[in-house]
Amino acid sequence: MKKAALIFINTLLSIAACAANDKANLSGRTQLDNGLYKCTYTYTAKTTVAGKDDVVTSETVLHIGEHGAKFADESVFIPDSLVSVGAPGNKIQMANLKTYGQDYPFTATVYQNYPEGKTTMVDVCQSNYAVLTENIDVFDWELTEDTLTVCNHLCYKAVAKYGGRTWEAWYADDIPLSYGPWKLAGLPGLILAAHDTDGVNSFVINSMQHTDVIVTRVKNVKEVPVNRKDYIRLKDEYENQKYSISGTTELDLNEYKSQARVFIGGIPLIFRSGKYVHLELE
Amino acid sequence: MMRIIFITLFLALASVTSAQTLVTGVVVDAQHEPVVGAVVKALTETKIKAFANTNAEGKFTLKIPTTVVADSLTLTAESVTYAKLSMRIANREQNVQFVLSTAATTLKEFTKVAKAIEARGDTMTYQLSAFTSEGDRTLEDGLKKLPGVSVNNDGEISYQGRKISKFYIEGLDLLNGKYTIATRSIPKEYVSQIQLLSHYNEAKIDKGKPSNDVAINVKLSDGAKFKPVGTTEAALGYGDKLLYQLGLAGMLFKSQFQSIITAKAGNISRFSGSAIRVLTNYFSDDSPLAARAAGTLSASTPPLKEVRYLESDDRLVSVNTVQKIKDDDKTLNINADYANSVSEYDLSQNTSYYAGDKEISFFEREHPHRNTHKPSLLLKYKDNTNDHYLVETFQAKGEFVNSDFDTETTTDSYMQRQKTRMFTVQNYISSNWNIKKAHNIRIGSTLEYISAPKYDLSVVDRNNESTVTQEVGSNRFLANLSGSYFRNVGGSLALIADVDADYEHNTITSELLGAEKTSVNSYSNDVGRIAFTPAVQYFSNGTSFVAQLKPTVRFFSAKNRLTGDVTHNNKFELHFFSWFSRPVNAYSTFRVNINYNKNIGDVVSLLTSPIMRTYRTENANSGIISESSVFTGLLYYEYKHPVKMWFANGSIDYTHTSMNTLSSQFVSTDNVAMQALVGDNTSESLSTRFSVTKELMSIHSKIKLGVNYTYSRNTIMQQNELVNYYGNSYTVSPSINMHPWSFVELNYDCSYSKSFTRYIGKSYTRDYLNNNVSLKIYPVKKITISGTGEFVKRQISDESHKSISIFDAGISYRLNKIEIRADVRNILNTRTYSYSLFNGIDAYTYDFGLRGREYTVTFVYRR
Fold it and tell me: What interface predicted TM-score (ipTM) does this complex get?
């Protein structure tokens, strides 16, 4: 009888826990994974600001889970944090509306190994969110003996060609995580720094911290699967022709940052301090 | 046959492409659950030959190239939550299993150490801890280490040769210019970053408009925020007298409220003067007319630290708060101070005046003693948003000084006593707002009342037992109303129209009592000014251009209250102000300033009856309103390369002045009479300055070289003879701060200067060499042993030089929040310091008495 009562109580608790989980306010998101680590990277791009050669930076986050990782603009991590602590939906919605407020935002969200063996990139494009899915091992890394110390971690250099650029990545041999910034993944250690050999784009890690924030994916209604060629074309049209306003003044950007984003047909209007630079050319 | 060859080739190629040894396997945990995402590597020695990640079932496949000829391989399996496991296997196809156990420790978190200097737009951010050493105590010590930043002996901060215009702590202007209270009270550990903001405009509404101002923002470390922090200091010592110093500095830095409250008393070194000195001010020159008419009884200041020669006894209470009101844009400041400083020292001086065919010399031995009281109160409200800017400032302050100069000549003995009493009440209000995006309006008003009821000097001749008293007093009331209209006319071009109207009423009286001759001045004076100032501004991509023309109509009337005569002097003044600034490249900028001012003198010009300034000098004016035209040109260049840590700046400054009055000096054996005479004359000066700093981070060293050159030409009527005199001087000042190893730090700075004076066929040269060396040794953590040496060599006559050496030493021990320090100053007990200099065509030679050997023990507690 006692055993039956315990089973009954246990069952009730389990049901309550499941119900609570169902009620967890994911605010239009799907939980992909439990979070393990939050790595912050500075993304640097060589571009033109007001017609002059300049360098722009933005802060990005690699959110590592048990089965994969998600890489995006640092503002994208905030709604995930709010979801994890059960924040009210309106707060999460406000955080969503304030994404991409940096001078030069990183608009793509890259899911590494979600689903398994695949890299899925979702990016703000012309009239919709373009979804580009590739194999995670699309980078054919050549490992070298060159070393570099980044944040007190000994890193080895690996080289691969991808998207019309040659990438040099520095991975930490003592951090057994095969992820990295943007789509750069599939090495025997976490990538702490990477740059293309044209000297246009680079990522450098700033910190790595434990996190309980769950890894989520927003259910965008306007997602359109594309191939790489279409993605580059759509992105180019979006950034350099219609919606993006490049070369805005610092004053305009500050004003813009203090307000919620402007959406046109569900797609956010992106302000950039400099002309958009493609990470992949072909 | 061809088919066989083709098949053979195909098989050969196929065998080449599949020339890999496959090692498969699974990684599981102790419960035999699959470990997902583990990294599995195959190595020979330490070189990775193949690697793979485990899938959702924990499985992996390693493709070992056949080029790997080793008989065996090391296989490792790693995952962030499991302990790394290795196994040795034969180099052949096989299936293996790893069983990982939970890791004893998780992966360590890390944060990248921020760059020592980072430039972003107009903001240069320094990580203070990257530049400071164990021996540094305060924020000021840290600021001195930053490349491009310099701090003078008064605590005044300059960046690339320009004085800062604003000092913020976490974005709030707590101290309203009296920032040495913060820089000398805040421990360096409380500060994380220093931000230098170039092209700074305080009003957000003015953001983006041309500016050459530099501001500083101190970012605090987390430990210094949100809770009360502070420093308690107590020191006791012995030298020529008992020495003591007690200090308490309490601070609170919250996001909505900041406060620094300081109370300090002591006689070891003078601190009150620099602590309350306002280094940025809204108000125009607030020195009373009486001060200019009577002059301030003073003696020369030697090129030594005050603590070497000055006996002092200071008291200071300073309360400073700033509170954000309602939102982040509105702030209210309260700054209240009371400072009392008593100082005295000994000197003897020989002054040699050119008197035609001979020189007349005066020898004096003096003991200046000064007691100064300075209370002040400042209230400030500010509302600073992107659309409007409102500031209201009220200030009341007083200065009460008693100066006693005990003076002995070769034959006589005097007591010169000056009593000055000054009060100032000022109010400033300004509002600035946008009408539309391109239109901006500002109105402002200033009210000032400056009273100096007493600026008196009495001279007691001890030989004759007679007393002569010079009484001087003045009052000044000023009201100013100004308005400005700003219009952006498109792109980067803006037009501005300013209107200024002000009225001032002055009274000034002077009377000499107890002398054989009477000498009285008494005037009341009214001045009105109306100015219309059109201006143009251009700012684009870092290129700035500003030009403004300020024609001013000035109405002046002065009534001699003794005779009833009224003097009218209505004049037209003209001021032109312009500057152009352009970046040469990403690292360097040049700027050109061209200004022209035509200035009309004030009622002091009408004081024709002599006013006694010392027991042997008197001053009288010409009786006509002085006029001067001043042209100044400045060429400034700066270079900043934060990555390579090179900072350099240089400037050439030229000034040409035309005047309608001429300074005259007539020297007799018992008196020096100074007078302003009617007579057109000109003067000019050229000043060049260059400074370059290189930071060598690898050996923690800052190397700096400064070079100055000045030229001047002036005219004076001396002994009724018109004399043109010329001055040239140059200074070379290298300095180095080295901290190559953690246990030692060396500071060395040197200054060599040479000056030349010539007039009527005579020429004189004087040179000066000053070396300062400081060595700090940190034998173990928490202990600092320091030694400093000051070596000075000065030319005191054409043929002779005089050298002195002064040494100090100290040891300190820090234990968490407590520090105990023992110091001995002037170890060699050096008691005199001599030097000479030229002022125009007069030559001065001084002998200063120095403080003797002193021992102090200091106890400091920091919370």
Answer: 0.82
